Amino acid sequence: MADKSSYWVESEDWHTAGEPFRIIQHLPSGFLPEVQTVSERRIEIIAKGLSVAISSRDSDISVDLTFAGAVIASVDTTQLGLEVKPSNANKFIRIQREIKAFLGDRAKYGPNELYAMLFFEEEENGKGSGWIVQKSINVYGDGQIDRSPCGSGTCGRMAILLTEGRLRENSKLLHHSIIRSAFEAEIVSKGQSPVEGFPACVVRVRGQAYLVAETRFFINAEDPVAPGFVLR
């Protein structure tokens, strides 16, 4: 059997929004794990807040910004009067575009631009003491919607909950997506944010992962740009 550890490639920025990825020539027999869930530890996550005005609303909207390998904006849907459900998807896309345009460079963290926006709502806690339960729609790119609650976004939600003082010892977040897929998250350690006045944390996220696609790249030794190129 092939050495599984040799297939993982760590990357600082391969347009994956901080998500780990792997390059595989083929899947050897028995390569896929038998476990039903996976977990990962993230880099330190920070949070800060802004108020924005958008043309479709009569009042300002409070937006929380976090950096968890990617810049994520969080918006409480109680400000919008919208429920997180599939029939409202186009409304959330329209609002995401308005807020993103209004924020502009103010949403940047270093060289990192705004990647995604989570519109979240509180859900009834059926998990018992120590749990916070939320549901989000994650709108990213040019109006795309994530099938998951978003790993970076879930980490960002944890940083905001920590900043708000809502996380007690051993507290966890059950984070649902708009289609009810779910991640569980907990804080592994706390730290000092480079942004004054805000804490930072390292988060562990647990959820189910599925292989959904395979891409092949071919390198020709005679190709003058075989290693690739970057224009911006």
UniProtKB/TrEMBL annotation:
EC number(s) reported in the record: 4.2.1.77
GO molecular-function term, one example from the UniProt record: trans-L-3-hydroxyproline dehydratase activity
SUPFAM superfamilies noted in UniProt: Diaminopimelate epimerase-like
Gene3D superfamilies, alphabetized: Diaminopimelate Epimerase, Chain A, domain 1
Pfam (any one): Pro_racemase
Highest taxon in the source lineage: Eukaryota
Family matches, as PANTHER family: TRANS-3-HYDROXY-L-PROLINE DEHYDRATASE
Protein family (similarity comment): Belongs to the proline racemase family.
UniProt protein name: trans-L-3-hydroxyproline dehydratase
